[in-house]
């Protein structure tokens, strides 16, 4: 009987610890930090592609990697804006949650532009890459205008 009680107690404690860790793992401040890191990473890869397009670096072997990273990161962006993360140290406007369909559509447009950039990068024509990068930049800018608080 004592053995059964110990096993039951261990199961209860494990559930409490795992349940507590899961809720702490998605605390709003952690989600906000995650999405900030994600967006900074997207910006870094976009900057790398721009350096290549402008001929400021000749690491053309990284073009495909940077372009695909933008696509992959943006595909994760939707999960980084769950309900309950509008407050705190964030530049995300409340409009994201007030008109989620519009936000999701803007994100899908941006993902589409990023995919076009990856296709252009695979083709290796830097003029096409530059045009695709410009289209991506416009899409990012439109999303930021609607859904991101401007830096002061």
Structure description:
The model has no long low-confidence stretch (mean pLDDT 89). Helix 2 packs antiparallel against helix 3 (63-77). 24% of the residues are buried. Helix content is 76%, strand content 0%. With 152 residues, it is mostly helical. The chain has a single domain, classed as Up-down Bundle (Four Helix Bundle (Hemerythrin (Met), subunit A)), CATH 1.20.120.10.
Summarize the structure.
The protein has 152 residues and is mainly α. The protein is 76% helix and 0% strand. It contains 6 helices and no strands.
- Quaternary arrangement of the chains shown? single chain
Question: How many DSSP-defined strands?
Answer: 0
CATH architecture: Up-down Bundle
Number of separate helices = 6
Strand composition percent: under 5%
The arrangement of helices and strands along the chain is HHHHHH
Supply the CATH class.
Mainly Alpha
Distance between the termini: 66 Å
Helical content stands at: over 70%
Q: What key attributes describe this structure?
A:
about 150 residues; mainly alpha; Four Helix Bundle (Hemerythrin (Met), subunit A); 6 helices; about 75% helix
Secondary-structure topology with pairs:
Layout lengths: L1 H24 L2 H26 L9 H15 L17 H4 L1 H24 L2 H22 L5
């Amino acid at each position: 009987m004592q053995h059964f009680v110990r096993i039951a107690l261990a199961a209860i404690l494990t559930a409490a610890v795992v349940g507590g860790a899961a809720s702490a793992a998605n605390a709003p401040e952690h989600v906000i930090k995650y999405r900030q890191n994600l967006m900074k990473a997207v910006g870094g890869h976009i900057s790398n592609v721009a350096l290549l397009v402008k001929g400021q670096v000749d690491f053309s072997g990284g073009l495909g990697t940077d372009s695909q990273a933008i696509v992959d990161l943006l595909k994760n962006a939707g999960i980084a804006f769950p309900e309950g993360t509008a407050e705190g140290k964030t530049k995300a406007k409340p409009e994201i949650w007030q008109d989620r369909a519009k936000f999701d559509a803007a994100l899908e447009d941006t993902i589409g532009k990023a995919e076009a950039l990856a296709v252009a990068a695979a083709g290796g024509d830097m003029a096409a890459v530059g045009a695709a990068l410009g289209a991506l930049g416009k899409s990012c800018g439109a999303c930021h205008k609607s859904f991101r608080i401007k830096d002061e």
